[in-house]
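Duplicate of #3305? Posting structure anyway:
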């Protein structure tokens, strides 16, 4: 395959990922829906044992007893992790700690809980079909991907999935645990527009409300089907979130970004990394999540997307893995 064809293929897949993020819940079961799976070179991996062996051969790597899962955020796909030279946190973990990396792609416009259920099943299939017994699983998630991870862990415990017994470390990068202020603003805007006695204004509000279920779930960080099912979720800032349990025996680590050098700057307080503020990323005063300070780190002058491709971020992950901090 020529480089030109590869570039066209990459642009097409990125465009489809953006479309799925925007209105993906309307594309479910259509040819335009992004199918959840682990992807390599723009192709969905089969999880048959022979195919997994071939995957390692293509990567010129050893089939390891340790696997790491990289999970992207809204409107992205697995290529969002790549540095210009095509290396990424997965390849670094492979080199430094002998993890075999797998890169998830999914429809980010679907409900987070739906993706959580699918991911729980997908990881169980990987666990059962992997050619050698898996001894350790590490997950690195960005933004919405962190919420999908929490949801998958919740449903995996409900389904009694065995892969959770091997889950040792979860790294949550710029994850909106308390929701996204931008989605809250969209909810406020549409509620105001619906109250204006003008059909054009209401039409604008209706158009804004066409944003995907996945985006709306970001308002308060909905993780379970009960959070949104049989609920009037478009009511003004009406939070119907239920709690979830973390995986026992797994360590959770938080990485946040902020736009400014000064952590007390008003821009940092309001906007954080542009899309997620620090309080949400660190789950400060969150009713269901607690992450100890030693397991949290904030990078200055780092926007929401840069945390996926910042060498200093990987070095922090590497340091945590090397020193094995206390469980949380």
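Output from current build:
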């Amino acid at each position: 395959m020529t480089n030109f064809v590869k570039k066209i293929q990459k642009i097409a897949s990125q465009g489809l990922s953006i479309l799925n993020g925007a209105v993906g819940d309307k594309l479910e079961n259509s040819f335009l829906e992004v199918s959840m799976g682990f992807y390599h070179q723009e192709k969905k991996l089969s999880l048959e044992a022979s195919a997994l062996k071939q995957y390692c051969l293509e990567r010129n790597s050893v089939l390891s007893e340790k696997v790491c899962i990289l999970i992207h955020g809204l409107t992205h796909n697995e290529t969002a992790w790549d540095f210009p030279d095509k290396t990424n946190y997965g390849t670094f973990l492979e080199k430094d700690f002998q993890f075999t990396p797998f890169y998830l792609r999914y429809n980010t416009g679907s409900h987070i809980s739906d993706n959580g259920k699918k991911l729980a099943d997908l990881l169980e299939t990987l666990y059962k079909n992997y050619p050698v017994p898996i001894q350790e699983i590490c997950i690195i998630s960005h933004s919405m991907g962190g919420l999908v991870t929490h949801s998958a862990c919740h449903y995996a415990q409900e389904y009694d999935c065995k892969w959770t017994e091997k889950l040792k470390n979860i790294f949550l990068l710029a994850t909106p645990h308390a929701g996204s202020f931008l989605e809250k603003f969209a909810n406020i805007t549409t509620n105001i527009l619906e109250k204006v006695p003008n059909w054009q204004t209401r039409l604008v509000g209706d158009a804004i409300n066409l944003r995907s279920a996945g985006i709306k779930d970001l308002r308060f960080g909905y993780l379970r089907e009960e959070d949104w099912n049989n609920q009037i979720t478009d009511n003004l800032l009406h939070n119907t979130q239920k709690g979830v349990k973390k995986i026992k025996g797994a360590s959770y680590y938080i990485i946040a970004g902020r736009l400014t050098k000064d952590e007390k700057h008003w821009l940092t307080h309001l906007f954080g990394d542009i899309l997620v503020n620090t309080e949400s990323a660190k789950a400060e005063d969150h009713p269901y999540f607690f992450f100890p300070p030693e397991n949290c780190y904030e990078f200055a002058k780092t926007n929401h997307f840069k945390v996926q491709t910042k060498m200093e971020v990987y070095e922090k992950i590497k340091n945590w893995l090397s020193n094995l901090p206390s469980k949380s």
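Confirmed duplicate; merging threads. The chain is about 40% helix and 15% strand. The radius of gyration is 20 Å.
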